[in-house]
Amino acid sequence: MTATDRAAAEHSPDDPTDEGREAQDSASGQSTLSVVLAFAANAAVGVLKLIAGLLTGSSAMLAEAAHSAADCVTEVLLFTALRRSGKQADRVHPFGYGKERFFWAMIASVSVFVVGATYSVYEGITTIIENAPDPAEEQFAWVAYSVLALSAVIEGISWQQALRQVLHEKRELRLSLSRYLRLSDDPTVKSVLFEDTAALLGLAFAAVGVVLHQQTGSSVWDGIASIMIGVLLAVVAFILGRTNKNLLIGRAAEPRVTAAIYDQLSAAPEVTAVVDLQTMLTGTDSVLLCARVDFKDHLTVGDLERACVRLDEELRARFTDLDQVFLEPVPREDESLRDAVLERFGTTLADWRAEQDRRHSSTADEEARR
Questions:
Q1: What's 155's DSSP letter?
Q2: Among residues of the chain, what percentage have pLDDT more than 70?
Q3: Region for residue 333 given its phi and psi (left: phi exceeds 0; alpha: psi -120 to 50; beta: otherwise)
Q4: What backbone phi and psi angles, to 5 degrees, belong to 277?
Q5: DSSP per position, 33-79
Q6: Do 228 and 321 belong together in one domain?
Q7: Which of 91, 170, 190, 252 has its CA 20 to 30 A from that of 1?
Q8: Mean per-residue pLDDT, 333-359
């Protein structure tokens, strides 16, 4: 979504294709760096947490070890997504393999729940039920504290890399952080950011559990911390799963992008009206466009063909994420077509475009008041 959204945000018709491709390659490289760094961090702290958990018998530390194991599995799956989604299109998959990134990201979110959340909740409930004193936890408490502090430093480095990429991209797209996280079509960096944030919160829960266990002598606090870590992982898995579900189903491009494409087609001298326009994300930085356009009646067949070719080139030059463009000439007076559009979407394209303008004005006024 990066290059195309940037073009829409800036409302500039001059977005060179080469620059757009370079931006996409840079974003892909940053995503790979975020995933690799996150894997290295999780693998390192996972071993330390496991050692601390075995020495102290702390269920919170063992839950954190399971958390890191789940994150390592996630990073492997996300790296697989980055590699496989870049395959060239073929006759079996004519629109490419871009959605493989969404699929593997969905599997990654499931692994967070299955490996991390389930084990953490189970370990916590078992600890609360047994509530047996464990001298080892008091004896080796310093090990747990040391591991938690070192883990926070390592996880923090990975978190900073993911946050830096997210903030950079959302500034380029001129989106708020919440809107960027909701609409981003790159699930890899978003997954890393959410998981690293959950990891830092999980370390805080584990630290509180270990401290309260040491102070009160009751392992119930340790078990509660473990359950809280499990619930945290379940929430993250749900958020990531919902995002990837929408991408897998076939979400439209960001409304601002669709509106900018509509405006550019409508402004073409050969076009009378844009009757219908549909977009779909076929992968990260990859958009499919289908538009039904009413061309002026005096155009010859040759004029119409040349107009379609020129519009295709102009759209691809400005919106470099457009992977496939299909333009269908139709008469706007066709009542059956209009009824079909209304039945499918509940409103005409012109009405939808006007609604986007109203929303944009409302948002601009709200930001001005702030």
A1: H
A2: 87
A3: alpha
A4: -150, 125
A5: HHHHHHHHHHHHHHHHHHHHHHHH--HHHHHHHHHHHHHHHHHHHHH
A6: no
A7: 91
A8: 77
Q: Model confidence at 133, in pLDDT bands (50, 70, 90)?
A: low
List, in sequence order, every residue forming a beta bridge with 281; answer none if it has no partner.
287
**339: phi then psi, degrees, rounded to nearest 5:** -65, -35
Domain of 100, in residue numbers: 9-249
CATH code of the domain containing 317: 3.30.70.1350
One-letter amino acid identity for 309? V
| DSSP string across 10-28 | HT-S---HHHHHHHHHHHH
Q: What is the pTM of this model?
A: 0.72
CA 62, CA 68: separation in Å to the nearest integer? 10
- Answer yes or no: do 269 and 354 share one domain: yes
Return all residues near 351 (Cβ < 8 A) that are at least 6 apart.
none
pLDDT digits (tens, 9 = 90+) for 169-223: 888 878 788 888 887 888 877 888 888 898 899 889 988 988 888 888 788 888 8
What are 207's two structure tokens?
Answer: 């630290």
**Res 137: pLDDT:** 55
Q: Which of 174, 155, 135, 157 is nearest to 71 (CA)?
A: 155
Tokens 């370390």 locate to: 203
Determine the Cα–Cα distance for residues 45 and 147; give it in Å rounded to an integer: 8
Residues 149, 202: Cα–Cα separation, whole Å: 12
Q: Which residues contact 74 (CB under 8 A, 6 or more apart)?
A: 108, 109, 111, 112, 191, 195
237 shares its domain with 357: no
Number of domains comprising the chain: 2
Predicted confidence (pLDDT) at residue 19 exceeds the cutoff of 80 = no
Residue 136 reports pLDDT greater than 70: no
